[in-house]
Design a protein that fits this description.
The protein is mainly α. The chain has one domain. Helix content is 55%, strand content 5%. Strands 1-2 form a two-stranded antiparallel sheet. Helix 1 packs antiparallel against helix 3. The protein starts with 5 loop residues before the first helix and ends in a 5-residue tail after the last helix.
Length: 121
């Protein structure tokens, strides 16, 4: 029953997107010294969510996040690598905030349902 609520599906998809983005960022950091490595990122959650919602027969549970080359803030290093550790740290903090927001949405929805049933916290 609870898993049928759209807000729960959205919060779950948002948390999965943030976790997947963290793994992509970790991969970028691990390859910071690899010759000709191009930094990657995921498409924005809102874009991915709308794409999935508009696909016939798909739900947020079926989400497949598209990887893309991230926009390079600075020029590539002499070895062709485009990973900027500062940029990756900023992206990591953004992914963490998105994950925290998803968990907060989930918790507040559960709290609201409990309150409506008269069960409180």
């Amino acid at each position: 029953m609870i898993n049928d609520l759209e807000i729960i599906k959205m919060a779950s998809a948002m948390a999965r997107h943030a976790a997947t983005r963290h793994s992509v960022i970790a991969e970028n950091i691990a390859n910071a010294d690899t010759v000709n490595y191009k930094a990657k990122d995921l498409e924005a959650f809102a874009d991915a969510y709308h794409r999935i919602q508009n696909s016939t027969g798909k739900s947020a549970d079926d989400a497949v996040w598209r990887r893309q080359h991230s926009t390079v803030v600075s020029a590539a290093s002499p070895n062709g690598n485009t990973v900027s550790l500062e940029d990756q740290m900023m992206r990591s903090a953004d992914a963490q905030q998105n994950h925290d927001a998803a968990i907060t949405i989930y918790k507040k929805t559960i709290d609201l349902m409990r309150a409506s049933l008269g069960r409180g916290n």
